[in-house]
C-alpha cells in the first residue's frame, strides 16, 4: 500500500525570490527551530551545465525519523538519511527538488517532489509550488497489518512539516524582499 498526496501553494513573491529562499531554508538558525526534524544538510555535488544553463545539486539530509516511537525502537534507528537532487533551470524559471530516503528503505520508502514555477496568472510576481509525496511502509513480520495506519501517520507528519516549510519559505521571502537589490544567491 502506498500513501500519496499532492499539495499546491502560491507564494506571492517572484520565482527568483522563492528559489533563493529554498536554498536558505535549512541554514538560518531561526528556521532550525521551526524545522527541528532536519538535523543536518550537506552539499555533496553542484554542477552548472554551460550549454543548458541548468544547475544540478545533490545534498545529503539527516532527519529525525518519522513515525511513532515504538516503530523507531523496532527498527533500531531514530534518524533517517536522505538525498535531495535539485535541478534549477534559470532560463525557463523552473526549480525541481526530489528527495528520497536512503536509510530505513527496508522498512519505508519516501519520495518527495517539489516544483517551483512562475504562477500563470502573475508570472512576474507569484510562484506556484507543487509538492507530491509518496510514502510506502513495507510490511514486515507481525506489523504487516499496521502498515496502512503507519503510512497515514507518516503522511500526517509530512503534511505538518510541509506547513512548517512553507512558513519558513514565506519568512525568508519577506526578508529577501526587504534586502536591497536581492537576487538569486546560491
UniProtKB/TrEMBL annotation:
Residues 2-181 form the PRELI/MSF1 domain. GO terms for cellular component: mitochondrial intermembrane space. It comes from the Eukaryota. This is PRELI/MSF1 domain-containing protein. InterPro entries: PRELI/MSF1_dom (IPR006797), Slowmo/Ups (IPR037365). It holds the Pfam family PRELI. It comes from Linum tenue.
